[in-house]
Amino acid sequence: DLNGHEAGNGGHSQGKSKVHRVSSTRQWRQGLFFDAIVKLRDELDEMLQRIRSERYIRPPVFKCPNCGYVGEGAEPHVSVPP
């Protein structure tokens, strides 16, 4: 799964269960109530944060064009469009 590496595939995992879960969530527009959408968003955000943490993925680094300050951007989060 996406939490680890599988032997024999160049260090890449298939991640079928989570990929299926994420792709199956595309149906949220087709009749989910607001509470269900918020719950789904929370679950996906938790999954994103867990994957980023387990893989030591840091936020992108930006450089301010005005002052030259270099620093990390904000952590990404899953959101629901209005």
Features:
single chain, two-stranded antiparallel sheet, elongated, disordered N terminus
Task: Tell me the strand percentage band.
Answer: 5-15%
Poorly predicted runs? 1-17
- Class derived from helix and strand content: mainly alpha
Computed Rg: 17 Å
The portion of residues assigned to helices is: 25-40%
The strand line-up of the biggest sheet is 1-2
SSE string, helices as H and strands as E: HHEE
Morphology:
elongated
Work out the helix count. 2
Distance between the termini: 32 Å
- Count the beta strands: 2
What does the main sheet amount to?
2 strands, antiparallel
Average pLDDT score: 75
Structure description:
This protein has helices at residues 16-24, 34-54, and strands spanning 61-63, 70-72. With 82 residues, the protein is mostly helical. The chain has a two-stranded antiparallel ribbon with strand order 1-2. Mean pLDDT is 75; it is low at 1-17.
Characterize this entry briefly.
The protein has two helices and two strands. It is mainly alpha-helical and 82 residues long.
Layout of secondary structure:
Layout: H1 16-24, H2 34-54, E1 61-63, E2 70-72
Antiparallel strand pairs: 1-2
